[in-house]
Amino acid sequence: MARQPKPKSTAPKTKSRTKRAPASKPAAPAKPGPKTKSKTTTKAKTATKAKTATKAKPAVRTKTASQSKPATKAKPATKAKSAAKVRSKTTKPSTPKAPAKASKVKPIELYYWPTPNGWKVSIFLEEAKIPYEVVYIDITKGDQFARNFLAISPNNRMPAIVDPTGPSNKPISVFESGAILQYLGEKTGKFYPKQFRRRTEVNEWVFWQMGGLGPMAGQAHHFRQYAPQFQPEKAIVYGAERYTNEVNRLYGVLDKRLKGRDFICGTYSIADMAIFPWILPWQNQGQEIDDFPNLKAWFERLRARPAVERGYRLGRERRENVTKEDQERARKILFNQRAR
Q1: Listed residue (180, 163, 4, 159) closest to 86, CA to CA
Q2: Residue 198 burial (CB < 10 Å; 0-12/13-18/19+)?
């Protein structure tokens, strides 16, 4: 299990100035007062701090499913600062009286495979700059049915996360991509509005994706790509047309929503992160993105975001290196499942 060292970061830069007292009248001598640091000394110290400051990036560590099994419970982590500051390893005190101690924070564990549902969470983690550790759940080999993973995700589906510093600073596991986005949005205060009306609007579109676009696009993928190898031709044609048309209808809904908007709910949010990955494979869904100009402009806007691209590329090489034998085994594992 290869681990990368945690990134360093520094405290925010501050610039202090010492105000000079107004000049006293010549007739009255000035009373001696407390000594103040000179302006040049303060600037020199600020410059020294600026040289040592480095921009931190989220630490991404990876595990392979064959080398490590998902743990059923995460060990409690040491008390951490707010999620927005967990990347800070050390902070310099403002006074020399009590130097701050280094805070060790365990990264979030992401149980992941590069699919649209997995991309939702990796994109958020990259956008929010949250340190995380990747545990690949290779669905072509049946890793999702491992007993330890089922303790985290009882629906035997990835993605799932384990946050060592959850509520009350205790570990918590979360499954289902939409629930994970909401959890991370609440925890970090990012990409998830606090104002009730705006948050409700974001929730509407997250659930629109979870209950509509995702399942319908998934069925379109199935009948257009996989079903021809297993089902009679007549059934294939009906299924392919049925779900291709429904995805087309949903694209139209989204296109109208995006008219005059840069993002689905006005500002960039988890709604955009939830929907974007299911538009990425538009060609496999039998769609023509040029037919939806507002959607296309939004799609290109998100694709240009560096964090979105990093989240999308995470583990991509693993999916691209899947062999035909792996694909055949995956189909037997994934299709026609029944209760276990």
Answers
A1: 163
A2: middle
Question: What is the spatial distance between Cα 92 and Cα 98, in angstroms, rounded to a whole number?
Answer: 10
What does the mean pLDDT of the chain come to? 76
Q: 61, 133 in Cβ contact below 8 A? A: yes
140 phi and psi angles, rounded to 5 deg? -80, -15
Is the full-model pTM beyond 0.70? Answer: no
pLDDT of residue 273 exceeding 70? yes
Among positive and negative, which fits the CA dihedral 13, 59, 302, 300? Answer: positive
Question: Which pLDDT tens digit goes with each residue over 314-325?
Answer: 999 998 887 777
